[in-house]
Amino acid sequence: CGARSEESTSDNGSGSEGKGESEDKIVIKFSHVVAENTPKGKAAAMFEELAEKYTDDKVDVQVFPNSQLYNDDEVLAAVQQNNVQMAAPATSKVSKLFPEWQIFDLPFAFLNTEAVQEAMESEEIGGKLFSMLKSEQLLGLSMWDNGFKQMTLDEKPLIKPSDFEGQKFRVMSSKVLESQFEAVGANPTPMPFSEVYSALEQGVIDGQENTLSNIYSKKFHEVQNYMTISNHGYLGYAVITNEEFWNGLPDDIRKNVKKALDETTQWVRENGQRLNEENLEKIKEDGTLEEIYELSDEEKQAWIDAMNPVYKEFEDEIGKDLIDAVKALRD
Ligand code: LMR
């Protein structure tokens, strides 16, 4: 899809106004920020293939990975304006418009991927979060998994909460993530994903948190010395579209595009974790990290305790009902 990037300057990619081979087709531009060999990158490619197949090529899905078209700060507005028709921002980034979506950023909120999926399927969590998108011309179609985040740092292994003291960490744009790092005495720096590698390389930041697939595919492990397997937070995606665009699709097209999406979602659910595990092995094989440290249960409990004040701090902003509903999943 690199060859298609010359269309990236077009500010109206919607409907049937695509160019060249897309002349009579309905163009769906899909913008994302990660590499192609990640859960989201692979899912986007699979969605492209299936959507085109199920609509007998009446739809032309154009995937733009690696922040080629828009970075984190721009993509929500691009979907709202129908400059791209679909995107799958991390839930943390949706929280810029809807702070309630920070629920997924609360440290140690989910025990496993199944709990996240259960949350998204429930009316009181997923239903509530998806329904609010409509007030901003957005429609939530699906939730895609990536996986749990791990910590990396340049200077030393992160084992005790006090190891965070004074270290500068990149965060996605989410106040909860900032607060999580402040709770352990670190300095959070919000930054788009596309800038993380060079910020690490140049020492603008000391560390970052991300999934193994994002760490591996963007080579963060080559510019960091230590990684802690902490599984402290979850990274997943809201697959969103422009509401007017979606509702304006012919019924049969919409049905088949949704079918392609549902199959893709199922695939990411079944394979996201595996891809992250494979990436851990590749990170080990590369041998660029000095140490990969796995927190013991006791050490993890010290992190949980240190980060716990974040829940109280965001009770009003996220909503006590939502927080209680997520906590209930643990019981
Ligand atoms: C990040 O900014 O670290 C992630 O949201 C990137 C992504 O989309 O997985």
Automatic annotation (TrEMBL):
GO terms for biological process: transmembrane transport. One of its GO terms (cellular component) is outer membrane-bounded periplasmic space. The keyword Endoplasmic reticulum does not apply. The keyword Signal applies. Gene3D superfamilies: Bacterial extracellular solute-binding protein, family 7 (3.40.190.170). Belongs to the bacterial solute-binding protein 7 family. This is TRAP transporter substrate-binding protein. The lineage of its organism: Bacteria, Bacillati, Bacillota, Bacilli, Bacillales.
